[in-house]
Amino acid sequence: MKILNANLLSWLIDSGLQEQRAKLYLVALQRGRATASELAKEMKMNRTAVYDNLRALEVKGFVSVIGEGRRKVYVPLHPSNLQRHFEAKQKQLKELLPDFLSIYASENAAAMVQMFEGKYAAREVYEDMLRVTKKEYVYFSPPQLTHLMVDEAEMKRWIARRVKKGIQSRSLRVRGKDVPKIKEYNETEPYLREIRYLPMYVDLKATIYIYENNIGVISTTHEGHAFIIHSPDMAYSMRQLFEFLWSVGMEE
């Protein structure tokens, strides 16, 4: 068997192929077309194992079978078609994503925590909110600090997307803190937002969003992290706490 390209082998494995099947595909690619017996001899494998792996590759679209008289010949997917193959998979995933998310957001799904760090950490929370939220989310916010964690232009686009989807929001803020003079952050009715204020002695060091069965947490630039906590019980408890504080919060 010729030496296989390590980069190609690694990429195929990372793309979801078992190592033995990835090697079999590359060997078939080297030969162009071959019978199972020829491939078994090339790979020094028994024919039963080769047949099993070829069937799996055929199901995944990496090889096709051509009948030549009484024998079967296996033809590998042409390299130029690999991109189309994975684009089709990506399109299929995009179509199935709502179903995956409905499982992820279900009442019975196990609790889990995702942590993000770096420049785009906060973006992960905001995108999850748009995917999951049906009607409304609520949040505790220190806008003067959150503003430092997100790009202003990007945040304005996100708010426009939220409004377009008809998602309402209610915000508990701390009165007296410096808030950026940006209408998208502060105006209420045009942006489907209600705001109430906590007493001035209350301080917040992170923004906490409660949406459906999730809690999103965006820390300050000092920590530079964001978290998504999926827990129906915790989200319910946090929402109860929010509703109590909302009931005693002060309006303008």
UniProtKB/TrEMBL annotation:
Residues 15-79 form the Transcription regulator TrmB N-terminal domain. It comes from the Bacteria. SUPFAM superfamilies: Winged helix' DNA-binding domain. InterPro entries: ArsR-like_HTH, TrmB-like, Tscrpt_reg_TrmB_N, WH-like_DNA-bd_sf, WH_DNA-bd_sf. This is Transcription regulator TrmB N-terminal domain-containing protein. It comes from Candidatus Uhrbacteria bacterium RIFCSPLOWO2_02_FULL_53_10.
